[in-house]
Design a protein that fits this description.
The complex is a heterodimer of chains A (about 280) and B (about 300). Helix content of chain A is about 35%, strand content about 25%. Chain A is α/β, with parallel strands linked by helices and about 280 residues long. Chain A has one domain: P-loop containing nucleotide triphosphate hydrolases (Rossmann fold). In chain A, α3 crosses α4, α4 crosses α5 and α10 packs parallel to α11. The mean pLDDT of chain A is about 90. Chain B is an alpha/beta fold. Chain B is built from twelve helices and ten strands. In chain B, the strands form two sheets. Chain B has a six-stranded mixed beta sheet with strand order 6-7-8-3-9-10, with helices on both faces. Chain B has a four-stranded antiparallel beta sheet with strand order 2-1-4-5, covered by helices on one side. In chain B, α3 crosses α4, α4 crosses α5 and α10 packs parallel to α11. Chain B is globular and about 70 Å long. Classes of the chains: A alpha/beta (about 280), B alpha/beta (about 300). Chains A and B meet through α5, α6, α10 and α11 of A and α5, α6, α10, α11 and α12 of B.
Chain lengths: ~280, ~300
């Protein structure tokens, strides 16, 4: 079986208004296996969003190639099959809400796939229950708060039963409770076998992934488990990134002579190490 | 500028089955030169409240007074009062509509009937304030990245030189460096001008670096209003309001519960480090000292 996602020499340039172009991706080789939980971090403009938009053919390579499930995104005949496998959830839910009630909005994907009504009903109910919006099913989406609308967008992605969901900063507009709910949902979906690709600017969120990819100037600058990546604090900071608070505090304590175990990523782990 | 919120209530689509009470009897005052954080879970009424302060909504009950003038009224005096309050929306694309970044940022100053030179000067100043390259002036704002669009939207508000600036989740979508830089610039602007700054944010770690006072809204009512140090270290209060406790406070609380004699109202990571070092050094059996012995 081919890897789930395979990028070979991927380059992409955006055309500029007045002619010319600007390179957003400068040669990316990357393999993502089924069931992975991959976090992508990087400063604004490093190419994170451009990269993931190649995974379901929203963007096509300027050079190199992208294969999903062994299917090339550059072949238009593959796009329907690829988009059924890879769902996307973006930062601003309002750009992806299409219907006049919550349940109709979630039903949009399954309806487009021409599923029987029973199956659509089941998927809509399940997806709304998963994100905790069941009680709002008959509401117009505009009546939901920003956080609830993002949960609705996630329900919409879930309803097509993809093999992978790409989340592009899904929680950056959410309050802590909704953020936790969304991240717990993402983690649970991954445990159940869904491949997760999570773009985030919150380093604490990246610690939940098993693999962290750091993008910088259109290239993959680091690729490894979170504990390993976050050891490179000064390097990350020079690229405009941060460390999780626990990693930063542990780092400063080590500088003051404390001996702490490596790989402390969360406040809970740090507290245990200190006590 | 004195912002007085008096017994303010707001019900969306009242009189229909979809009626939803967003604010219920909110009263508070914000004076000139204050830096205030407004926090609360999704649906707590934060965005509704700041839209009332900007005079964009009509109260169901009560009122918002800007130096004694009711902000929502359709009078020339009220419109002049509203102009003194700048509100940057949660989603910048909701407020952007011009063809170029220059026109977008110049829109407010042009409406204020400033002359061309003054308008150009304000645009330059505002773009610099938010850290946008002047070369972007001629770009369409809709071709900007999310972070750049957010900066452009903020610049268009700063260009009106508001006496009160309200930012609704201003750093969402910015990278960590961009967030720190933008907040530092806004803070410096506030200190220099003595304007009022109201920051709506879910990120209490970030808020702790900017504001002196924090108001917690919960279910349309004021659940707490006090100094940042006091409110942001009250983990019971924050949890009840559906908010995350700042990470440093979480760590210090865990140590406190384990018997360490640490203060738990240190909001920033560097403060937490100092507090841990301070308390440990006071112990005759310093943990750090013990570790050094073990190491030998």
């Amino acid at each position: 079986m081919p890897p789930f996602v395979e990028l070979r020499g991927l380059e992409y340039s955006y055309p500029l208004d007045g002619g010319g172009q600007i390179a957003a991706l400068r040669g990316i080789d990357l393999t993502i296996e089924r069931g992975e939980f991959l976090a992508i971090v990087g400063p604004n403009g490093s190419g994170k969003s451009t990269l993931v938009r190649h995974l379901n053919g929203l963007l096509l390579p300027t050079a190199g190639q992208v294969q999903v499930n062994g299917l090339l995104t550059s072949d238009p005949r593959n796009l329907w099959a690829i988009r059924q496998r890879v769902g996307m959830v973006f930062q601003n839910p309002d750009n992806q809400i299409v219907a006049s009630t919550v349940e109709e909005d979630v039903a949009f994907g399954p309806e487009n796939a021409a599923l029987p009504p029973d199956e659509i009903r089941r998927r809509v109910d399940e997806a709304l229950a998963t994100v905790g919006l069941a009680e709002y099913r008959t509401r117009p989406p505009q009546m939901l708060s920003g956080g609830q609308r993002q949960l609705l967008a996630i329900a919409g992605a879930l309803a097509t039963r993809p093999a992978c969901i790409v989340f592009d900063e899904p929680a950056s507009m959410l309050d802590p409770a909704n953020r936790r709910q969304v991240l717990d949902t993402i983690r649970r979906l991954n445990v159940e076998g869904l491949t997760i690709i999570l773009i985030t600017q919150a380093m604490e969120e990246a610690t939940a992934a098993r693999r962290v990819l750091v993008m910088h100037k259109g290239r993959v600058a680091m690729d490894g488990p979170p504990a390993q990546v976050f050891e490179h604090g000064s390097q990350l900071r020079s690229w405009g990134l941060d460390l999780p608070a626990a990693v930063e505090i542990a780092h400063h304590l080590r500088e003051r002579g404390w001996r702490l175990p490596q790989g402390l990523l969360t406040i809970e782990q740090l507290a245990r190490a200190l006590c | 500028m004195l912002i007085r919120v008096e017994n303010l209530s707001h019900t969306y689509v009242s009189g229909t089955p979809l009626a939803r009470v967003a604010l219920h009897g909110v009263s508070l005052e914000v004076s000139s030169s204050e830096r205030v954080g407004l926090v609360g879970r999704t649906g707590s009424g934060k965005s509704t409240l700041v839209q009332h302060i900007a005079g964009l909504l009509t109260p169901s009950e009560g009122q918002v007074l800007i130096d004694g003038i009711a902000a929502h009224e359709r009078t020339i005096v009220a419109r002049a009062a509203r102009r003194r309050v700048g509100l940057a929306f949660q989603y910048p694309e909701d407020q952007i509509f011009e063809q170029t970044v220059f026109r977008e940022v110049a829109f407010g100053p042009r409406n204020m009937r400033l002359n061309k030179a003054e308008i150009a000067e304000r645009v330059r100043w505002a773009l610099e304030m938010v850290g946008l390259n002047p070369a972007m002036e001629s770009r369409s704002p809709f071709t900007l990245s999310g972070g750049e669009m957010r900066r452009a939207a903020l610049a268009s508000i700063l260009a009106m030189r508001p006496e009160a600036l309200i930012l609704d989740e201003p750093t969402a979508g910015l990278d960590p460096h961009g967030r720190r830089e933008l907040l530092a610039r806004v803070r410096a602007w506030q200190v220099e001008t003595g304007a009022t700054l109201i920051l709506v944010s879910h990120n209490l770690d970030e808020l702790a670096r900017v504001v002196e006072r924090v108001i917690v809204l919960d279910r349309g009512q004021v659940a707490a209003d006090g100094s940042a140090r006091q409110v942001l270290s009250d983990s019971a209060l924050l949890s009840a309001a559906g908010l995350d406790v700042p990470q440093s406070v979480t760590l210090l609380r865990a140590l406190h519960e384990a018997g360490w004699d640490v203060r738990t109202d240190r909001l920033l990571p560097e403060e937490a480090v100092e507090e841990i070092v301070r308390v440990d050094a006071g112990h005759t059996t310093s943990l750090r000292a013990l570790q050094s012995v073990e190491a030998m």
